[in-house]
Amino acid sequence: MRRIGIIGAGIAGLTAAYHLRKHDVPVVVLEARDRPGGVIRTDRADGFQVEAGPNTLRSTPFLHRLVQDLSLESERVWADDRSARRYVVRNEEPVQLPTSLRDFVTTDLLSTSAKVRLLAEPFVGARTDADGPAEESLAAFTRRRLGPEVLDYAVAPFVGGVYAGDPEQLSARHSFERLVEWEQEYGSLFWGALRSGTGDGADAEVPSGLFSFEDGLCTLPRALADALGDAIEYGTTVTALRSHDDGWEIKADTADGPAAYEVDGLISTVPLPALGRLSLVTDVDRAPLDDVDYPPVQVVALGYERSAVEHPLDGFGMLVPPVETTFDVLGTLFSSSLFPGRAPDDHVLLTTFVGGARNPELARRDDAEIQSIVERDLGRLLGVTGPPVFSRHVHWPRAIPQYTRGYGRVKETLDALEARHPSLAFAGNYRNGVAVGDAAASGRAAAERLLETGIPA
Q1: 4-40+218-292+403-452: CATH homologous superfamily?
Q2: Are 36 and 179 in contact (CB under 8 A)?
Q3: Could you please report the per-residue DSSP string of 323-374?
Q4: Euclidean distance between CA atoms 399 and 397, whole angstroms
Q5: For the domain bounded by 110-125+133-196, which CATH number is listed?
Q6: Using one digit for the tens of pLDDT, what is the confidence trace for 375-429?
Q7: How far is CA 96 from CA 26, 88, 93, 107, in A?
Q8: What residues contact residue 270 under an 8 Å CB cut-off, 6+ apart?
C-alpha cells in the first residue's frame, strides 16, 4: 500500500489522517510537539480548567458526524443557554448586544441615528466593478453598508474576538466572504441573510449551538490521535521536502537524530511562516506565503472567588472595541459560565485576550505587567476586586493568520503549488476560515483531494 505523509498533528492534520485511514490508506503524521492538537490545549490546575487556545466548537454536520464516529457524544457538553448573551463595552461599561428586535430598539449600544442607518441597509446600493479595482477592507465594507457606529461597536470588537484582527486591514471578501456574496447576489445583507437561511448546510437532525467536552476541547484531538495510534510520530520536526517521480522525500530532526521518510503523497498543515522556513524545492513563487501576518496573542486566565466579581457573568463574555481607548484587553470570556466544571464551587474563571493586530507589542510584555493590565481592566469593567486566587498565562507568538487585503494571492499560491505538485495538498486555518471547524474541514478536503487525484494509486 502506498502511504501519505502528513506534517502536523493539529486538528487539520489529524482529521486528514483519520479520513484517509477510514479509506484504508496508510499514513504517517509527523508532529514537532510531544502532544496532538496544535493550538487546542486544555490545562488543569487547582480545580480550574483552562483552554489555552480555542474555547468552543460550533456544531456543524461535519463536526457532529465526527463526534459520533469517535463515540464522544456522552462526553459532549453544550454551552449554557446564557451563551447567546454577549456584552460589548461602550462608554466604559459592558452593554448587552441586542438579540431581538425589542432589544435592538431599546439598546444603548447604538445611538438612534445608528439604528436608523442600520435599518436603511437594504436601500444601500451594491458595490460594482465600476467602483474601482481596489480590494475593499472589512472596515470600508461595513461603513458603506451599515454605518461607522456599527463598525465601531459591533464588527470591530467581533473581529477582535475572532481574528484578534484589525478590520481596517482585513479583506472583506476573504475574512467574511458570505457577506460580500450576499451583497453581490441579493444587493443587501438583510435580504441575503433572510433568503439564504443558515447557508451552512445545516441539517434539521444535527443539533446546533456551541459545545465542548467535559474534559475540554483537547478531547477531540486526543480521540483522533488515539484512533491513529502509532501512525503519529511526536518530537519530529520536518526540515526539508523534495518531490520526485515516485512521491516525496521528507527530512526531519528527531530525538534520535536526522530521519528521512518516503511517501507517495503529502499534506502540509504547518502555519505558513513555518512552511516558508522549510526547504521546499519547487519552481512556484512562494513569496506571498511569507507575507501572511500572525500577530501575537497572550491568553490570561484568572480565577476568582465568586464574591469578588460584581458583574453577573450571565453570558458568553465581553468584547472591548478599539474605540474604547482607555482599555487594553481585546475581550474576556466568562469561561465558568459557559460550561460546567471550569472552576471550583463558588469560584469563577475569566479568560482574557491581549495583543493581536490591535496591539502586538503588548502581547510581548512580561507576565506580571500583562496581568496587572488585565486585572485593572477587569476591575473597571466587571467590578472585580482583590487579587485572583488562580492565574495561568499562555503565549502564542504567532496566533491567528490575518486574511488581509490581497489575501487572494495567498490562496492562488497554494492552488498553484497543488497544481504543480498533484500529490501535495494544504490544510489549516489559513485555507478557508480560522475556526476549529473550518480547519478540520480543510483537513478532510485535503485528504479527499489526494484520493481524487489517485494518490495513493
Answers
A1: FAD/NAD(P)-binding domain (3.50.50.60)
A2: no
A3: T-TT--EEEEE-HHHHSTTSS-TTEEEEEEEEETTT-HHHHTS-HHHHHHHH
A4: 6
A5: 1.10.3110.10
A6: 999 999 999 999 999 999 999 999 999 999 999 999 999 999 999 999 999 999 9
A7: 51, 6, 10, 8
A8: 7, 8, 238, 278, 428
Residues 61/66/71/73 CA torsion (nearest 10 deg): -40
Pairing type for strands 424-426 and 265-268 reads parallel
Confirm if 108 and 120 have CB atoms less than 8 A apart.
no
What backbone phi and psi angles, to 5 degrees, belong to 135?
-70, 135
The SS3 call for residue 215 is coil
Dig out the grid coordinates for 181 from the structure: 456574496
Query: C-alpha grid cell for residue 161?
Result: 474576538
* Residue 453 pLDDT class (50, 70, 90 cuts): confident
pLDDT in tens, 24-80: 999 999 999 999 999 999 999 999 999 999 999 999 999 999 999 999 999 999 999
Beta-strand ranges (E) seen in 196-246 are 210-213, 232-233, 237-244
**Is the CATH code 3.20.20.140 the one for domain 41-98+209-215+295-399?**
no
Half-sphere exposure of 171 (CA within 13 A, CB side): 19
For residues 227 and 21, the answer to whether their CB atoms sit within 8 Å is: yes
Read off the amino acid at residue 269. T
Q: Kindly report the three-state secondary structure assignment for every residue of 230-296.
A: HHEECCCEEEEEEEECCEEEEEEEECCEEEEEEECEEEECCCHHHHHHCEECCCCCCHHHHCCCCCC
Give dist(CA 28, CA 19) in Å, integer. Answer: 13
> What is the distance between the alpha carbons of residues 183 and 165, in angstroms, rounded to a whole number?
23
* Amino acid present at 368: A
- Residue range(s) in the chain whose domain bears CATH number 3.50.50.60: 4-40+218-292+403-452
The three-point CA angle 160-166-171 to 5° equals: 115
Q: Which residues of 316-331 are buried (b: 16+ CB within 10 A; e: fewer)?
A: bbbbbbbebeebbbbb
Residues of the chain with CATH 3.90.660.20: 41-98+209-215+295-399
Q: Where in the chain is the domain with CATH 1.10.3110.10?
A: 110-125+133-196
Which residue is listed with cell 495510534? 229
Whole-angstrom Cα distance, residue 50 to residue 353?
13
By three-state DSSP, how is residue 236 classified? coil
How far apart CA 268 and CA 13 sit, in angstroms, is: 8
| Three cell numbers, residue 298 | 497572550
